[in-house]
Amino acid sequence: FRTYARDTILRVDLTQELPPRAKVTLRIAFVAKAAQRANLLLYHGMGYRQGVYAWLHFWYPQAIPAQELLDSRYVARQRPYYKFAPPAAFYEVVLTVPSEYQVAAATDYQELLQDQDGRKTLRLYSDVPTRSAGFVLSRNFQRFVLKGTIPAEVYYRPGHEGSARLVATYASDILEYYQAHFGPYRYKRLVIVESPDPGYNNSAGDALIFQGSSHFSERDLTVPGMFDRLSEYSFAHEIAHMWWGFGVGCDWNAEMWISEGLAEYLAYSYFENKYGEFESNMFKIQRDGLLERLAQSLFGSVNARRIYSELAYLYTLHLEGFDEALVKPFESAEYAHVAVFKIYKKSYLVLRALSGLLGRETMKAVLRAVYQQYNGKILTTESFRAVAEQVSGRDLKDFFQQWFYQDNPTPFVDYAVAGFQSQKQADGKFKTEIQLLRQGTGRMPLEVVAVAEDGQEIRQTWAGEEVNYVLTVESTSPIHQVQLDPQEVTPDVNRFNNFYPRKWKISWGGSGLS
User: Fold this and answer.
1) Residue 111: beta bridge partners?
2) Residue of 441, 502, 400, 405 whose CA lies nearest to 317
3) I want to staple 152 with a disulfide (CB 3.0 to 4.6 A). Which of 25, 168, 216, 424 is the partner?
């Protein structure tokens, strides 16, 4: 994958400039081999393993305008920076395979042209331009189709029909939610393929998801249904790539956050809408028993966003000492071993913060507008900002400069409530001065909630600019608690000091005391 995509470039100079809508035919003879792999998904769904052949991404030449190969904005270690922005085009594959093989293609259609003498020929094509013309094939696959407006076709290994049906149901629910909130699905179907690789890793192409076998074979391992929601969240992320990464393209070198961060944003939007935003929502133990109680004590309190995004971000920031700008080529990355946390987790947290700044409905409108304008095209960070500013009517230059571009040092925020004092006024009301602190170089507005003894809640927004700030509120009874950022929209690196008096939670032997 990397050798072909990064190191092999064939330059073709045309004898004359093509006028609009003119065509030229270029024939290239090449060979793509399916190498034996220990794990197909680790090689981007390319190779052969246990009777499964996969050519998921970029096994064929791509037509890229010469000026797009070199971007002079970036110079990494005195080498030119090369963009990797796969273009969308109308691909057509004519594939001949042994008749007993099932073919799962990342296309709208797979038309049977001929089947004789033990070999069949298929035509694979789509109605929309795509960035991949991938396919997976095996003689061991079985097939299940869940019919609907968008058919879900699942290719699975024998014995996993129940899981295939569940996966198809997830697909239907996720597609319905995404289309209602973020724009229409651009393909005619969704194809899901079980990989022979163990684990919960996945890979995606246009209209196709290649899933680790654990999604199919380990659903009922130890505790029945325990990992269903983990699979559903993972699946929601891969389906989101039909909008971001393959629908809306980007430079997968320097601006990978567009693909992965926005896929995470859609996945959490779906998952938290269904299972709650602040609850213990990842593992649901349905039955009672010795193993079920043990699993509940170990995993029952897991919140997906806090554990898989926020904790991962905090781990790299505090323990690894890592942080870098979101817009940055891989060649310039100083911490490549944990780049996945930046690309997936930090970018999601920044998008969540942007949603908190604009409001969730405005954020949805932004994403719908970007998708409508850049579907089938290449999106840049600056283009995303321009649409966000147009839709929201706000100047977001400072926000994007801080959280997408600023490097060495990268910004972080740690807001805290240092304390408060309430004093009764002559009119019987209480005036309270709340001491607020901003630590770190980042700045971000956040909500402050003061709760009085009689239950009254006073909500105000602090711009978050000052290092020390006194917020004054009035209430009908003394204030007894103050909380910062109750919706947890800022990427705060220490939420323990967001409460005053501070909250404590002590876990001992699997039980929680608050």
Assistant:
1) 123
2) 441
3) 168
